[in-house]
Predict the structure.
Amino acid sequence: MSAAIAIHGVHKRYRSVHALRGLDLTIERGEFFGLLGPNGAGKSTLINIIAGLARADSGSVSVLGHDVVSDYRQARRRLGVVPQELVFDPFFSVREILRIQAGYFGLGRANDDWIEELLAALMLADRADSNMRALSGGMKRRVLIAQALVHKPEVVVLDEPTAGVDVELRHSLWEFVQRLHRAGHTIVLTTHYLEEAESLCDRIAIIDHGNLIALDSKAALLQRGMGQRCSVTVMLAHPLAELPSALSAQLKTQEGPRLQFTLDREHGSIVELLDALRAAGAEILDLQTEQADLEDIFVELTRRDRHESARTVHTVS
Amino acid sequence: MNPHGLYTLFHKEVLRFYKVALQTLLAPMVTALLYLLVFSHVLEDHVQVYGGVSYTAFLIPGLVMMSVLQNAFANSSSSLIQSKVSGNVVFMLLSPLSYLEIYLAFVFAAVVRGVVVGLGVALVATLFVEVPVHSVAALLAFAILGSAVLGSMGIIAGIWAEKFDQLAGFQNFVILPLTFLSGVFYSIHSLPAHWQKVSHFNPFFYMIDGFRWGFFGVSDVDPLFSLAVAVAALGGLAVVTLAMLSHGYKLRH
C-alpha cells in the first residue's frame, strides 16, 4: 500500500537560497505527523511542493501513490491543505465559498450535506450566509479548515493552523483535528507551538536549512539526546565555599545557594549528585527535577545543525 | 476533463462581477453613453465617414465594441490581480483544475461581461439614434471573438502584474492606445496614408471594423480578413496564456 505522502530527493532553490537539499521523507497512512523547524527552514516550501503551489527542481513527491506533477488531479483530490495565511475571497459568503471550492473538485449539490456537516462541526452554521469580510479572524481560520476538507481528502496538511489564534479556539481546533485523525485521516501539522506537536503528533520530523535533521516517533525523540538528560535544581541552606570538581562540568547556573545542574543519566544519577554535595558539606533544603521536553530537543538539534552544518539524517527505524 | 470544475470557476467569475454590477456593468455603460453624447454633439457636422451614414450612427458600433473589449479585459485581469494580491488564488491552484480549464473559465466569463456591457450600451444608444443591423452573425462573432481576445490579454496581464500599479500601466499603455487608435471614433480612411498603414498593424482595428460591418455592411477592410485576424489573434494569445498557466508563471513558484 502506498504511503500517504512520499518525498524522494527533493531539491528546491530560490535564486541563491537552497530551500530544500535532497529531502527524503515518508509519511504513512493514518499518521498524525508533525513537521517542525525554525523560520526559513523549508517547511512551507515543502508543503507548497506537496500541494502543487511550488515545483521541485528535482526529486519527486506523491500523495497516496499519485505524483503531484504528472498525476496532479488525483493527488489534489486526495489532499486538503489549510494555508498559513488568513486568505479569503471577499466577494462571497461562507456557504458560497465552500460550494465553489467543492465545485472545483467536480462536486455539485450532492455535496451540500457534507458542507452543512462541516459548518456545524466547525461552529460556523449561524454565520454560513455572512460575507467572509464580516467574520472574525478565528472564524476565517475555521472556514479555511472547512475549505480544505470540503472534498473529503484522505490526507490533510495544516500549515500552522493555530498561529495567532486564542487559547480557546486553539483547543477547539485541536479537538476537531483529533476527531479527523480518529476518523482515519492522515494529518500533517506544522506548528511553532512545540507543545502542540508534543501533545498531538505520533511522529515528528525536524527540518533546518532544507535538511531533515531528525525523524522519529515522539516518544523515541524525547528519549534521545536531550531526552536522556534532566535538569536538577538544588537549594542549599548556605552557599558552598567550593564546588566539588566532579560536579563543575554538570553545573549550569549558580545563584548563591541555588545551584542548577544538567544531568546526563548515562553518566551519573541524582543520588550520586546529592551525595557529592553532602560530602562537600552542603545542607540541602529543597530539590526540583525537570525532564527535557520537545522544545529542548528542538533547540538542541537546530543549534547543533547550525554549529556543525550537519547534514546527517538522524533516523530510528 | 473536469467540466463541473470548469463551470464552477466560470460561474464564480460571473458572480464576482454580478455582485458589483454597479461598477462592472452600469458604470461602463454610462461612460460609453457620455462619449456618445459629447462626441456626437461636437463632431456630428464636422467628420465625414461612410456615405449615407451619420457620424453618430457610425460612432455607436465603435463605442459598443470599445466597451466590449475594455470590460472583457477588466474582468479577467482584475479578478486575477485581486486574487493574487489577497492570496486567495491558492484555492484555485490547490484544486484539480487543469490550466486549460482555468483559461476557458476566465475567457468565458470575460466574454459574458463584455457582451452584456456591449448589449447594454447598444440598447441605450439606439434610443437616441437608429442604427441598421446588416448581419447579426457578424455582430455576435466579432463581439465574442473580441472579448475572448481581450479576456486572454487580461489573463496575461493579471498573471504578469504583481501589483495594481503594473496592471494600470498595462491598461493605460497597451489597451487604451490600441483601443483609441483602432477607429472607434473615426474611419481610418480619414487618416493620412502613413497612419492608415500603422492602423493595419493594430488587431483591435480589425475587430472594430468587422463589428461595424455587422451594422452597416460597409467597412474599411474585407470583414472576412478582419475575422481571420481576430481568430489568429485569439489563437496566438491562447497559446501564450496556456503556456504561462502550464508553466505556473508567477503563480506556482
In short: Chain A has eleven helices and 14 strands. The interface with chain B takes residues 14, 48, 51-55, 72-74, 76-77, 79, 81, 83, 85, 87-92, 96, 100-101, 103-108, 147 of chain A (CB under 8 Å).
